[in-house]
């Protein structure tokens, strides 16, 4: 069943190692068939190199496995919570991609510093609040979705297609699984650049001596250039 | 028409992923035929893997499409503004390459810290001023060229073949499209090293204990060396 | 003898360059046959590209070579010390992987900042104390194992499968050689992210102007979007 | 003439892109035949992809071209100065490798923070003093060698096989061209790790909440583990 969606979800999962967003099996992509109310998601703990489209697992919106020889990703309840709340989305991605995770670990959202972010995200990419002891100890993965939803009370998930889970890592979503991965790649780029922007802004040092600057430019470009000719 | 220039512009565009300057389609290269007053530029939104030389778009200096089945890059008006002002240049590149974009996002030019920069750029690589509300809301892309031109009132664009657009990213240029890409690669290298130079200059810590330093060097190089023999 | 373990140790060693954990020959993996009391370890100074399974060296728990045409890794006494103390482990890895080494050089353990670490390590990954002059000058490599063991007086090596040797680099272990390499990869990821988390937490700067943020998002996503269509 | 040395110098030059030490043609390796008093060096401005062993240039110790259809590297006078002063060396390398150049641009030597450095360099890797206006304007490349030699008045070039030229980049040397490249790779690794060690040492932040740490470890490793099984 859902062979096309399985193929789509499989291919989207395979983009995670291609774009260098995962180490080992630390990531998962899902897609939803809204009409049937069924989700297709990566199996748990299967290596990317060995994974096939037919290994994808089908679950319903209560988390029951409808088809599949493997267990669904441990993060399935988080995906489900997002699909239930964000009606327009068709795909969800979770990774521990480095720079987005660094912001998650710092407990900070990513402010908009440049147009690369503004091309995809309308304003700050939020970081979730701390989960309570109760939320962590019972239904942890479903509650991970709950704190994400909490962060979007006043945000449009179509305008901000991603979030940082505090002390954990990013989730992104999109109109389909491929689009959700696209946003995961963008988030990682943005996070890397935001990190370095924040640090840089505090520092300034003295430039090189003028005479050395002149020498180097002129030996390649001046009227008597002799370098690399 | 302009088949040679199309090939040249196509090949220069394909260097952007090769040198790791772009994610997805976040970059574009153009070239100009000064005699005919025509510009050849990358089509908008076409993936690098699928792009062919014949997909390049020909536009005139008013931005009218003269030939091409695709729309020209959204940044075409910026390229046009630069070709109009800087008479010696034959190619223009725009990317969101990471380290140059980080400086753009910090709103800072790149001071000359070393000979790598001085070999190509004569002094600081400027960062443009903030655009006004009006400049952003009307003819945004053309005005992006306008603030670049503003930054070069007292600079020679042949001596400083690139600029950082504030909160956006770098533009570079050169005598032809390939040369403009060459300068984009150099700018990215320079930016990475300048960032790290600025940060480093503030820090210093204690070295390792002498006895450990001596042990390691001597077990490989001393008269009684026994390591890796 | 021990042909299976040799193959296993050889393959685990070859994962070090695959996961970008070593430069030249700066790393080694060993495995133990607990029943026979014999260790199989990488030969000293042999390049990864030329190494074969049959080049692995067999040593006993006193460090005597039992089989092998090469000398065993200079770090063999450290591996032995760990096997003697940590009864449950079946494989040991040593590298100078960049980010873990950076923490070693800073003399600091890696605190748990996120779930990536908590998935594998229960709490802080410790950094060893300074070695004494005597420990360095006599039986240096065996004493390197000694200071590791010292760090685990109150830690469970099954729960914290790795350590940072001060001013040196990381050792990790696992139930077999492959598992020990797996933990070495995880440690390097964790170290990279912890470094950047620690620095980031101190910094915050101003975001981009709202009007520019709006323009970029709306030209791609607003009702009058015209970018990359 | 000197066909073997040409081959050796050519192969050593080709290691520079392999080890990611150069952008474009920003690096060069030479070797010396001490008996004949002749140096073989990379030609100026030739791309690595097109270079052949027979393109290497032979010069004498006064810098006269003895054989070769190309001009020798612009940095030849620096190499010559080093061969004249350091009698034991057989190969010299110059690059603008990123991390070593960052230290050069900061005007700082690399202190020994760990055993990776101590395995190859005995103590701090020095950074040269500022060159005078006269040294820069006349015989700049030869004087670049002069300030290097100045830095080694009290250092053994066999024990410290490299240097950082202020505001420029690194030179390394060795018993032959291949060994000099080996040291260039090591220097770059050391520089990257020293940079990050220096920055890290200043920072420390709070770890993640204990309850989250426990949850993640126990869902994979506790008696009721359910993650990735």
What does this entry show, briefly?
The structure is a homotetramer of 229-residue chains. Chain A is an alpha+beta fold and 229 residues long. Chain A has helices at residues 3-18, 76-85, 98-106, 115-118, 133-137, 140-151, 177-200, 210-221; strands at residues 27-33, 38-41, 57-60, 65-67, 91-95, 162-164, 170-174.
Query: How many discrete structural domains of chain A?
Result: 1
User: Taking all residues together, what is the mean pLDDT of chain A?
Assistant: 92
**CATH domain fold name of chain A:** L-fuculose-1-phosphate Aldolase
Q: Strand percentage of chain A, roughly?
A: 5-15%
Placed side by side, the strands forming the largest sheet of chain A appear as 4-3-2-1-5-7-6
Describe the structure.
The structure is a homotetramer of 229-residue chains. In chain A, 40% of the residues lie in helices and 14% in strands. Chain A has a single domain (3-221), classed as Class II aldolase/adducin N-terminal domain (L-fuculose-1-phosphate Aldolase, 3-Layer(aba) Sandwich), CATH 3.40.225. The longest helix of chain A is centred in the last third of the chain and has 24 residues, at 177-200. Chain A has helices at residues 3-18, 76-85, 98-106, 115-118, 133-137, 140-151, 177-200, 210-221, and strands at 27-33, 38-41, 57-60, 65-67, 91-95, 162-164, 170-174. A seven-stranded antiparallel β-sheet of chain A has the order 4-3-2-1-5-7-6, sandwiched between helices. In chain A, helix 2 (76-85) packs parallel to helix 6 (140-151). Chain A is elongated, with a radius of gyration of 22 Å. In chain A, a hairpin with a 4-residue loop joins strand 3 and strand 4. Chain A is α+β, with helices and mostly antiparallel strands and 229 residues long. The interface between A and B is medium-sized, with 31 and 36 residues.
């Amino acid at each position: 069943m859902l062979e096309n969606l399985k193929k789509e979800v499989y291919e989207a999962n395979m983009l995670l190692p291609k774009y260098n967003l995962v180490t080992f099996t630390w990531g998962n992509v899902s897609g939803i068939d809204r009409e049937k109310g069924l989700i297709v998601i990566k199996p748990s703990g299967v290596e990317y190199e060995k994974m096939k489209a037919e290994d994808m697992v089908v679950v319903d919106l209560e988390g029951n496995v409808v088809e599949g020889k493997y267990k669904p990703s441990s993060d399935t309840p988080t995906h489900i919570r997002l699909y239930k709340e964000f009606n327009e989305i068709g795909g969800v991605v979770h990774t521990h991609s480095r720079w987005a995770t660094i912001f998650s670990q710092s407990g900070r959202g990513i402010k908009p510093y440049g147009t690369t972010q503004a091309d995809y995200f309308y304003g700050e990419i939020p970081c979730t609040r701390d989960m309570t002891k109760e939320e962590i100890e019972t239904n942890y993965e479903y509650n991970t979705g709950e704190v994400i939803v909490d962060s979007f009370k006043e945000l449009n998930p179509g305008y901000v297609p991603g979030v940082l889970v505090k002390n954990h890592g990013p989730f992104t979503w999109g109109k389909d699984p491929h689009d959700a991965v696209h946003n995961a790649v963008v988030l990682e780029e943005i996070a890397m650049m935001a990190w370095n922007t924040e640090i840089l802004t505090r520092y300034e040092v003295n430039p090189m001596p003028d005479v050395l600057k002149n020498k180097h430019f002129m030996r390649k470009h001046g009227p008597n250039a002799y370098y690399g000719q």
